Amino acid sequence: MPRRPIGRRLAKHQPLAFSPFMRLLAFASMARRDLPHPKDCQCSEEISFDEKEKVPKLTRKEKDEQSSDSSDEEDSQGDVQADFEFFDPKLTDFHGVKTLLQNYLDDKEWDLSSFVDLILEQTTVGTVVKVADDEDESVFAVVTALNLARYKDNKCFSEVKEFLRKVCSEKNITKDLEMLLEKKAQDVGLLVSQRVMNLPPQLLPPLYDGLFDEVSWATEDEPTGELRRSFRFKSYLLVTKIYKLKNPQQRKPRRGEEDIEETIFLKPEDELFLELSSWSFTFPMCSQLVTSQEMKNYQLMGLVMAVEANKIPKFRQMLNSLID
User: Fold this and answer.
1) SS3 content of the chain, % helix, strand, coil (to 5)
2) Which of 63, 73, 159, 162 is deepest in the core (most CB within 10 A)?
């Protein structure tokens, strides 16, 4: 059942943060700039502090003049507002969605283009987020759920499964993973969710509510019995990224410092999914995307989770409570 686009006017605000680093990042992302297009910004798991290197050095006189003008400048700028709208995926979203998913499987070379095609062809379940009246129609977020068995003959899905098998080094989980990838594949939805880093967190509850409502509608409204059955998920499989503290036993906060967090969730909903998951495992990524002093003690990790479908109502409730 297609959904009418939803427009929301949102004032510029501090993105939701769960750690000192993410709070610092939130303030950095708000520093006197207009909302960027995806092609000019980083996705939620790609964070950079390179901007500070681009700030020119000022003389003492220039610094004093800048300081005296700062309050007037801030008052004149005010809040930046943007209308975000939810849309069914379409073929013209290809480049925007591909940009968001470019590191979905770390640095693996795989058929990402075909994977994006499958996302865009499934118009009854899935959402892209754009800014209203944007001539470029830039994509700021994408969320969908793809049945593992329905697309098992596609090369890109074979590559996803091959990747997951390769990075799973926990023997007690290997069997569970294999069960979802093969024997129970017809009941498993690969939940794909990616967005730009500073997307307003208030969009998250309606974004996920829309996804799971569409899954429910598809079990009744799809034209064939085979398609309707393909959305009767019993489990969801998620692939995402987090930051883990290196050698947590050796890292103790200094006097006056906040407690050091062992895990930084780049997407707040991932913490909820992990809490509700049946099993999960992490694996080291091949690259460290953040090269800042704040993150020198953290390692970028992949996180794979399995969440039973009967836990989704609880997830939706928790997400709404968290954002509210």
Assistant:
1) 45, 20, 35
2) 159
Cα–Cα distance between 204 and 206 in angstroms, integer? 6
Q: Is it the case that residue 156 has pLDDT exceeding 90?
A: yes
Helix (H) or strand (E) holding 323: helix 312-323
Pairwise CA distance, residues 57 & 316, whole Å: 47
Asked whether the beta carbons of 86 and 5 are under 8 A apart, the reply is: yes
DSSP state of 318: H
d(CA 105, CA 320): 29
| Residue 253: predicted pLDDT | 57
- Minimal CA–CA distance to 210: which of 85, 120, 94, 99? 85
Rounded-to-10 torsion of CA 210, 215, 217, 220 = 180
User: Which candidate, 78, 29, 49, 323, places its Cα nearest to that of 196?
Assistant: 29
> Minimum mean pLDDT among 34-48, 104-118, 186-200, 233-247: which range?
34-48
Tokens encoding 42:
């980083």
205 in Cβ contact with 319 (< 8 Å): yes
Of the candidates 191, 210, 90, 101, the residue with the CA atom closest to the CA atom of residue 147: 191
Residues 241, 167: contact at Cβ < 8 Å?
A: no
| 84 CB burial (10 A radius; 0-12, 13-18, 19+) | buried
**Exposed e or buried b per residue across 108-137, where buried means at least 16 C-beta atoms within 10 angstroms of its C-beta:** eebebeebbbbbbebebbbbbbbbeeeeee
pLDDT at 120 over 90: yes
> How far apart, in whole angstroms, are the C-alpha atoms of residue 94 and residue 89?
9
Residue 196 DSSP class: B
To the nearest whole percent, how much of the chain has pLDDT over 90? Answer: 60
Question: Chain-centre distance of CA 207, in angstroms?
Answer: 12
pLDDT of residue 258: 59
